[in-house]
Design a protein that fits this description.
The chain is an all-beta fold and 74 residues long. It has no helices and 4 strands.
Length: 74
């Protein structure tokens, strides 16, 4: 059977150390810039795999369908 799961976006705080970069102006003069150390956020997607048979208590997990009395209309 195909794997079951979903994509989840995770935001991680990342430290960016101080650095200097060299840029050139329109006349070709070299200009060095300094970027102070800082934190930024990086977003990545991870696959979260699940299997309805992996529940710790052994009960079937309702995925929005089936005949589970816990989710019956009242």
């Amino acid at each position: 059977p195909p794997p079951r799961g979903y994509w989840k976006e995770i935001e991680t705080r990342v430290y960016v150390p101080a650095r200097t970069t060299t840029i050139y102006d329109s006349r070709g003069r070299r200009i060095q810039t300094y970027e102070a150390p800082h934190y930024t956020y990086e977003t990545s997607r991870v696959w979260v795999e699940y299997n309805h048979h992996d529940n710790r208590d052994g009960r079937y997990e309702n995925q929005g369908w089936g005949n589970d009395s816990r989710y019956a209309r009242r």
